[in-house]
C-alpha cells in the first residue's frame, strides 16, 4: 500500500468541466513530488459551491487501485 498527501484547489468554474463529464481524471502532485492521476468520480462528494479546496490523503494498493480518499482540511 502507498499513501500520498496532496492539496487541491479548484474554483467552481474549473470544476464545471469535470463535473459535466468533459474530463475523467485529475493529475495532482503529491507532497513527495510524484504525480498521481485520479478519476474525477472520486472527488464528486468533495465539490462545493466554491469548487474543491483542501488537503487530501489517498491510499493506493500495490497495483495503483484506490483504497481510500479523505479530505484532511
Task: Please tag this protein with its features.
1 helix, 73 residues, 11% helix, OB fold (Dihydrolipoamide Acetyltransferase, E2P), three-stranded antiparallel β-sheet, mainly beta
Brief summary of the model shown:
The chain is mainly beta and 73 residues long.
Low-confidence stretches: none
Q: Gyration radius, to the nearest Å?
A: 12 Å
Q: What is the strand tally?
A: 5
CATH topology: the name is OB fold (Dihydrolipoamide Acetyltransferase, E2P)
**Total domain modules:** 1
Briefly, what CATH class? Mainly Beta
**Biggest β-sheet: strands ordered side by side in the sheet:** 1-4-5
Given the C-alpha coordinates, what overall shape results? Answer: globular
Protein name: DUF2835 family protein
Pfam families: DUF2835 (PF11197)
InterPro entries: DUF2835
Descriptive overview:
The chain has one helix and five strands; from the N terminus they run βαββββ. It is mainly β. The chain has one domain (2-71): Beta Barrel (OB fold (Dihydrolipoamide Acetyltransferase, E2P)), CATH 2.40.50. The protein starts with a strand and ends with a strand. This is DUF2835 family protein. It holds the Pfam family DUF2835.
Give me the secondary-structure topology:
Layout (H helix, E strand, L loop, with lengths): L1 E9 L1 H8 L5 E5 L5 E5 L12 E9 L5 E6 L2
Antiparallel strand pairs: 1-4, 2-3, 4-5
Amino acid at each position: 500500500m502507498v499513501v500520498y498527501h496532496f492539496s487541491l484547489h479548484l474554483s467552481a468554474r474549473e470544476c464545471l468541466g469535470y463535473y459535466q463529464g468533459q474530463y475523467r481524471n485529475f493529475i495532482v502532485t503529491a507532497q513527495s513530488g510524484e504525480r498521481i492521476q485520479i478519476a474525477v468520480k472520486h472527488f464528486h462528494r468533495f465539490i462545493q459551491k466554491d469548487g474543491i479546496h483542501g488537503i487530501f490523503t489517498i491510499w493506493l494498493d500495490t497495483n495503483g487501485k484506490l483504497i481510500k480518499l479523505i479530505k484532511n482540511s
